[in-house]
Amino acid sequence: MVGTLEGKQAAEYHLTLTEGQELSVLCHARKQNVTFFVKDAEGHMLHPTAQQCAHQTWRTQVPHNGKYTVAVFQHHGAALKGQSAFYRLHVSAH
Q1: Out of the domains of life, which is the source (predicted)?
Q2: What is the DSSP string of 10-53?
């Protein structure tokens, strides 16, 4: 998945997963102000938003069945300035 973030916009992707599946997320962005989060079906954060999209793969086994959300966004300062940022996101589940 690829896209360009504009200002405060977040790009959300939803996956229906089963307990025990491994979720893998790899995020690429040229700008350091781009990051992502992962939430479970109840809205609990599984991935902290403090890390940037630094070409590193994040993995976890999902704790229960449900719809998971992966969202890419810009940090607050860049978003308020109306900056745009290109990203590439690789999401897989096994």
Answers
A1: Bacteria
A2: -EEEEEEE-TTPEEEEEEEESSTTEEEEEE-TT--EEE-TTSB-
CATH number of domain containing 6 = 2.60.120.380
Q: How far apart are CA 94 and CA 8, in angstroms?
A: 32
Range of the domain at 77: 2-93
pLDDT in tens, the chain (94 residues): 999 999 888 999 999 999 999 999 999 998 888 999 999 999 999 987 766 787 778 999 999 999 999 999 988 777 778 888 999 999 999 9
